[in-house]
Amino acid sequence: MNIDLLSHRHLARCMAIDEAAPFPWGKTHWSRSLRDDHCLGLWRGADLVAISAFTLVFDELSLMNLVVASGEGGRGYGRALLLGGLEWMQQLGPSRCILEVRESNVVARGLYRSVGFGEDGIRKNYYPLGAGREDAVLMSAPLPLDEWK
Question: Would you state the CATH architecture of domain 2-148?
């Protein structure tokens, strides 16, 4: 497995992964992020198995999205891309990473906590959810992560 930068030429592969996700980000968001942000992919040979998008504002890194391909969950790909992506982004000098995650996404919240992210608060009614809305859990971690020290 290896982690590499993604570009707009990878849009179709990103969309194949995104469209199978429970809450797809959509073509507009991925197209913009592939152009403007730092998008990384986890490759298993020629297969793209996980994708991520990070953005950096001054010394604060934001994880915008991380998606593992359908049928590939539970194999450590999300963890590998999260840690590898944070390590990759360290070269740009961020002092912390922030993210928002659906309150119902207990798997992702557990992953983030396991690598050193703490829960900072709740953003009420942030995500669309069918006919209603869902809260976002705000999380952050100082960088570099203790796991790297």
Answer: 3-Layer(aba) Sandwich (3.40)
